[in-house]
Amino acid sequence: MTTAERDHLALGDEFEAQTRQKLVVIGNGMAGARTVEEILARGGGEMFNITVFGDEPYGNYNRILLSGVLSGESDASDIFINPLDWYTDNDIELRAGARVSHVDRIARLVHAEDGTSVAYDKLIVATGSRPFIPPIDGVMNGHGPRPGIFVFRTIDDCNAIANYAQGCARAAVIGGGLLGLEAARGLLTHGVEVHVVEAGPHLMGQQLDAQGGRILARTLREMGIGVHCGSATVQVTGEDRITGLAFKDGTHLECDMVVVAAGIRPNAELAAQCGLTVERAVVVDDQLRTEDPDIYAVGECAQHRSQVYGLVAPLWEQAEVLADHITGTDTSAAYEGSKLATKLKVMGVELAVMGLKEPESDDDEVLQFSEPHRGIYKTVILRDGVLVGATLLGDVSKVSFLTQAFDKGTPLPDDRLQLLFDVGPPTAAVSIADLPDDTQICNCNGVSKGQIASCVSGGAASVGAVMKATRAGTGCGSCKSQVIEIVERAAGGDLAEDPSAHYYVPGVPMPKAALVEAIHRLGLRSASEVFEALADGRDDPASKMGLTSLLRTIWGPEDLGDERDARYINDRVHANIQRDGTFSVVPGISGGVTSADQLRRIADVADKYEVPMIKITGGQRIDLLGITKENLPRVWKDLGMRSGHAYGKSFRTVKSCVGTDFCRFGVGDAIALGVEMEERFKGIEAPAKLKLAVAGCPRNCSEAMVKDIGAVAVEGGRWEVYIGGAAGATVRKGDVLCTVGSHAEVLTITGRFMQYYRENARWLERTYDFVPRIGLEELRAIVVDDRDGIAARLGAEMARSIDAYVEPWQTEAAEPATANQFAAPIAVA
Amino acid sequence: MSPTESLVEYSLGSVEQIPLGEGRAFQVAGHDVAVFRLRGGGIATTQAQCPHRAGPLADGIVGLDSIVCPLHAWRLSFATGAAEVGDCGIVVYPSRLDDDGEILVALTAASEG
Description:
The structure holds 2 protein chains of 2 kinds.
Chain A lengths: L2 H8 L2 H7 L1 E6 L3 H12 L2 H4 E7 L5 E2 L4 H6 L8 E3 L1 H6 L2 E5 L3 E5 L4 E4 L4 E3 L2 E4 L3 E3 L8 E2 L2 E2 L3 E3 L3 H11 L4 E5 L3 H11 L4 E6 L11 H13 L3 E4 L3 E5 L6 E4 L4 E3 L2 E4 L3 E3 L2 H5 L8 E3 L10 E3 L4 E3 L7 H15 L14 E6 L2 E7 L9 E7 L4 E8 L2 E8 L5 H10 L8 H4 L19 E3 L4 E2 H9 L5 H8 L9 H12 L20 H11 L4 H8 L6 H14 L14 H5 L2 E2 L5 E3 L10 H13 L4 E4 L5 E6 L4 H8 L11 E6 L2 H4 L7 H12 L8 E6 L13 E6 L3 E6 L2 E2 L3 E2 L2 E6 L2 H18 L6 H8 L1 H9 L6 H13 L4 H7 L11 E3 L1
Parallel strand pairs in A: 1-2, 1-9, 2-5, 9-23, 13-20, 14-15, 14-20, 15-16, 22-24, 36-37, 37-38
Antiparallel strand pairs in A: 3-4, 6-7, 7-8, 10-21, 11-12, 17-18, 18-19, 25-26, 26-29, 27-28, 28-29, 30-31, 32-33, 33-35, 34-35, 38-39, 39-42, 40-41
Helix pairs in contact in A: 3-11, 14-15, 14-16, 22-29, 25-28
Chain B lengths: L6 E8 L8 E6 L2 E7 L5 E5 L13 E2 L3 E3 L6 E3 L14 E2 L1 E3 L4 E7 L5
Antiparallel strand pairs in B: 1-10, 2-3, 3-4, 4-8, 5-6, 6-7, 9-10
């Protein structure tokens, strides 16, 4: 029992009123008022004479709803939590409009600017925060913002913004966080064009990761709001009236008014002046006490366990603990920090965030779903099977379930899909078990479900044996998982473990890592040496191509025992064999940028050799089809161009769009980067082909987001590097590996990733399988963050391969590499 | 080939026309053949085109006892001509190298028929 309570029991009311402790609350915002409510709810009205100081000449109101006032949806009176009557009813002395100038801790007096002072026994600092105005040229005029520039914090701010907007055509909001977007939403209804300007790379950086931010930006643009990310404002232009904003990159945005919503700063000066510890805000313990046991701090001005909270839920929790403690209701009450789970509505878009927004370690399990078209983005992060973070944008249907799992650690379903979606029972049509036997499974080789199943009943004991016997899954490979499922079902439990599934190539019984190690250790320089040393001398033609590729990645040209016969025909004659045995010739046209001279030479060659078809390829190149083998060297000589490498398991092409050169939307020089990339990596061998693209803006005209590697320019002179995309037999949007600021960095990251892929991918494993198999986070840790310290080596290995590049067409047109390399059938007399 | 047809051994010239481990196509006595120079020693000779889609077998990848067609990776035996999968196959011609490294292939005579 506290002294106050004993007093209350022992003494009469009149005497008690005089002996009640004096509680002073500085701040009448959401934290101050809520804390007072909690204290009253615990009988604090009997214990304390309460005085509340408030800056604003109002009762307290719900600041979260201010954008509704700005937009006109709500009247200011709608958002008051406690009207002035509430204070009188509860015997609270409200000093509205009175600013506190300082606190005298020795005399225990709070001094106001009007010269009055109030004594306290207990003091609560709830001074909140104020808008942060970044030091931008042309913003300030004396001590305040110049006319036309507003902050967005109070009812008065709302009124001023609404009035000024009457005479304006275009408003800019500096700050793409929650507050900035709220301000933008409010402004929309005032007939002005609204632009949100964010210095960081994406919107709502506090709550969203890059991808979520981009999807939100897309949704806002569809609403007619201009979004400018990566735009650091350096100056507000205009003499008398504002004319616009100047950005660091030299660009300019016209506008006639500006709302600054670039974050908040805790109002901690008062606490600092009276000697309390202030770091980012006023430091408090688990009872919300400062180091002075009679002074508490709560809300946005308080720093607890290094955290300063700017959202409302933590404030409610703090107010309860403070009230428990100060009233003696529960002196052991402790605030241990808030698990942040918030549901917001940003411009009508629903958003729920809790815990981590991005994984913190490689072991964190990340589920992600992205549907930009509908503005939907979901991520869920698990650690050791426990939910530690989630972001739901555009579709918050799972928020109750996830919030519960986050707050209470309730068990999660093994089927992780259910964390993101409400999954109904499987429909009959999608289950392979229910497909009729005559359903064609392998569309390349025309193999039906029934044929696969009967192959198993006929004695094939492994997936590999079934695939070999039926050819199912041996074409493009996209049906392989279905083939496996059918085989597994047909075999019941009798399926033999197929060790060859883990081999790099079928003829050498080793996974890739062991094979690479053995090649290094034994110094094996050719396919023959590998078969001799590692496969009991059993030469396997189906394994030669994969071995050749691997050996060429491991050894430089001087160390390689080049066996031309271990190459596929395409790599022996540097052209792509066609169904009639002729070849296709695709000249190297870096980045897809050609010239009249090149086109003329191509046309002349087409005439001279009566080329049956000239085709623009999907990769922005020109394909001369139907060239006989014997004509290849002649065609190359006449073209006088380099190989386009459109035939190998190697780096193929870099598609590009016209970028900033001509396109009015371009934000990055896609042509220059595309040409640079192709010139650098042309012909580099890999476990499977690599198709690349560069897009000069997120419109993605060159389809960079569905390439093995793609670079997409984003506003602010930056490039997003995508990996693992595909738009072939498999369609997969690439993952953003990183965002970098220069062409050189794109080349560096691309080189490292390609080298890591060359060293670790299985033979013929495209990046769209490799990236999900290794995991985006793992790849990022290795090639971007250099966690393993191998980035420099990867770069150097790639550079060695680049240095060893020999242009094959002109080299071998001048001098064939083998006897009758390009010969037509040799006629014997 | 029916057993009654008589075979004639034709010389196709030096084995040096074919790089080790590769194949080359020849036209001889009205026949299109593919000759392979095996890494294990000796040669093998087959019909020039695969039975599946007429792929040029001489452009395939050569093993010790089989050839893999360049178009769809069908594997065909040098010993029997049979495809590894399915019941079609290719003609395999008797062939050898003489002491001077000359390619000798036994074919039905050109003048016949």
